[in-house]
Amino acid sequence: MTGLPDEVRRRLQSQTTQLWSPPGVIDLGIGQPQNEILPLELFSAALAKAARERQSYPLQYGIERGDGYLRAALSEFLTEQQALTGTPASQVDPDLILVTNGNSQAIDLCCAAFTRPGDVVLVEEPTYFLALKIFRDHGLTVVGVPVDGDGLRMDALEEALARYRPAFLYTIPAGHNPTGVTLPEDRRRRLVELAAEHGVLVLADEVYHLLRYPGPDGGAAPPGPAPLAAQLDSGVVLSLNTFSKILAPGLRLGWVQAAEPLLARLEGRGQLVSGGGLNPFSAAIVATLLADGSAAQYLAGLRATFAERIAVMDEALRAHLPAQVSYRRPDAGYFFWLRFPDGVDTAEALPRARALGSGFQPGRAFSTTGGLPEYLRLSFAYYAAPDLRAAVETLGKVFGRLI
Amino acid sequence: MTGLPDEVRRRLQSQTTQLWSPPGVIDLGIGQPQNEILPLELFSAALAKAARERQSYPLQYGIERGDGYLRAALSEFLTEQQALTGTPASQVDPDLILVTNGNSQAIDLCCAAFTRPGDVVLVEEPTYFLALKIFRDHGLTVVGVPVDGDGLRMDALEEALARYRPAFLYTIPAGHNPTGVTLPEDRRRRLVELAAEHGVLVLADEVYHLLRYPGPDGGAAPPGPAPLAAQLDSGVVLSLNTFSKILAPGLRLGWVQAAEPLLARLEGRGQLVSGGGLNPFSAAIVATLLADGSAAQYLAGLRATFAERIAVMDEALRAHLPAQVSYRRPDAGYFFWLRFPDGVDTAEALPRARALGSGFQPGRAFSTTGGLPEYLRLSFAYYAAPDLRAAVETLGKVFGRLI
User: Fold this and answer.
1) Which helix (H) or strand (E) holds B144?
2) Which string of b and e fits B51-71 if b means at least 16 CB within 10 Å?
3) Most buried by CB count within 10 Å: which residue of A379, B92, B177, B178?
4) Looking at the predicted structure, is the pLDDT value of residue B2 above 70?
């Protein structure tokens, strides 16, 4: 019996999750859910149930489109969640759902299926910085389209569609990363109309759609717009979603909703046919949690937790940040997006913030052109209220001196 | 509360695993492990243990190279399994392991990272038919290199390397799919030497390496050659492996062993960075099963089960197939590869075999050129002994008339 030296084993066992910051830093740049709120006991109970019932199919090669139990349960879950949007409920079509192994993999899969190296893709300026990395992996040229306080500007989109003839537009329509903005209903309709006119696909990254929060006065969250997944009839929308933000990232489980010809293209890829779908084991477990209502219950609790943290962060920002810093309290998602006066470069303040035990994501990270130096992104997902307060207070000290 | 109509729900709930054959057919063409032998209770126990210990990290975004607990446990497991090969044990390097979401996804990832559309890739003629589909997805031109009774022919490989300057050679060196052949040690050395000389990567699909069986006289399996993973120093080998064949396919969990510069290329892909590794949840569960010895124990039982089935299938083939049919009893893997006399096209017999309740994979499916009509592939992995006997007897009736 051979064995690894103890120091190698200890080193390896410290390598479990992504490391963004040194220990001791409360890094508000981390856009992940807090470890302590991940519901491991739910997963354990669901798997124990499957084992008791001797349901071995979760361990077998799955079907390419994804576990039918999950697609059935997800269709009902999504239909019920439509109450969020204030639109009349219409049954979400389970046949137009393809189960994925998470959103990052789904974005990569869509690039592989629908683009060629050298193609242009449009994104919001700013946008999710790690999506940009995936696009570059595929040899795509990324062009940013400007946003305003309501999200993507339709005049700029129309111009970019005509000028670049892109392979697709990548957009985050609700709780935008990093700006926190939710695109209003009228722009959603116009966006899909423009894309359809130009024959351009819309990769809608709707991972924050189900995370809607009440305003400062509390109560229920005001109804938001319907997801772009409600516009599959257009034939150009691929709505990407994931359980990472509403249940657990480690599952690597998500879904795509799209019109049949688009799903058929994805489903026919060799890696799905050869591998037997993208993640049957996680899918079967989550199917149980959706069907017995525990996923919906967990999500309701998560919204309440995050709504509280938004209130805490909002209050701390008002108390500690200089009055020249502006932001909008988010109504959805994971993020606050702060604007500092012109001339401030938030990236320059990052080393000092870290030295004092706080952290953030500088605006430049989200820009397609290295711009937006006067912005930064904070997330309330990874830390509880006392840490959020302490870290914002530290940022107040760092930026109080700069302005 | 909305709900799906009962008939829609029932239809969806029949969509769980890949469907290759109509019900009632014992399809020896299926190359999957039997549902009944998948160890769901082991997974349930491992997850319950994690829940008791409040280890929430399996649900978090993982580290890009993969869970350190899994890489530590896998390094020790693979080192112990070297007894199979009769080579002196040397510690498998846990730092040169990258955790994947299964072999099909890993092949796809390697195509994405190491090829461009239009590149040539070399494969064995015949080879695993679904890998061909992945290569075609990436716009690669596939060129087959002939095999003989000992596997890939080195003279033909040398010629093809010089002539085509391929991006990589895809090879299945142990328990080859479909031929069942294991490449001998001397050819393995020569193969890597040639690839290194020509600066060509070797994608070694070593998924059957740990499934070695005794010969007809029983006892322990004779020592086989070391895996190509033992030749990482060459700098050209990417050894791909998976838990699909030795534990459970639905996990979508595998690993790549390669020299550091190759792993770094894979690790830096956007989908790994954005998604936080490829499958942290499955990885954490399997880490427990490797560390507590239950995976090794399960694998030993699986080898015994498959060795028995090989004996049954061998005996049934001798009893029922015409004497002109030749094959070699496999020493590894999942498959028997049968050769019929020239002039027979096994594909033509498939409808009759199905009508009588049996099935197989015709040789043509594995050919890069639509050749090999006189061959067929049988697997013993999906059925227990009585079904194997019955299905081979049926094939005897089908082919007895044709020869």
Assistant:
1) strand B141-148
2) beeebbbbbbbbbbbbbbbbb
3) B178
4) no
* B chain contacts of residue A68, beta-carbon cutoff 8 Å: 11-16
Interface probe for B, chosen from A59, A93, A298 (most Cβ of B below 10 Å), is A59
Q: Are residues B34 and B77 in the same domain?
A: no
pTM over 0.80: yes
What is the domain count for chain B? 2
CB contact under 8 A, B48 and A43: no
pLDDT, tens digit (0-9, with 9 covering 90-100), for B64-108: 999 999 999 999 999 999 887 777 778 999 999 999 999 999 999
Q: Does residue B153 share a domain with residue B60?
A: yes
CB–CB of B250 and A62 under 8 A? yes
Among B239, B259, B293, where does a domain finish? B293
Residue of B nearest to A242 (CA): B275
Query: Would residue B163 count as lying in a domain?
Result: yes
Could A16 and B67 be called an inter-chain contact, meaning their C-beta atoms sit closer than 8 Å? yes
Domain end position, chosen among B293, B309, B332: B293
Contact A60 B38 (CB under 8 A): yes
Q: What is the ipTM of this complex?
A: 0.94
| CATH number of the domain residue A30 falls in | 3.90.1150.10
> For position B1, what pLDDT does the model report?
42
CB spacing of B18 vs A269 below 8 angstroms: no
Residue A12's closest chain B neighbor by CA? Answer: B68
Q: What angle do CA B340, B142, B326 make, to 5 degrees?
A: 15
- Predicted pLDDT at A2: 56
Residue A278 CA to residue A276 CA, distance in Å, equals 7
Pick among A9, A11, A12 to test the B interface (most B CBs inside 10 A): A12
In the structure, how many helices (H) and strands (E) does chain B have? Answer: 13, 13
Specify whether B150 is located in the same domain as B165: yes
Domain that holds residue A34: 21-38+296-400
Phi, psi of B108 (to 5 degrees): -60, -45
B91 to A244: CB separation less than 8 angstroms, yes or no: no
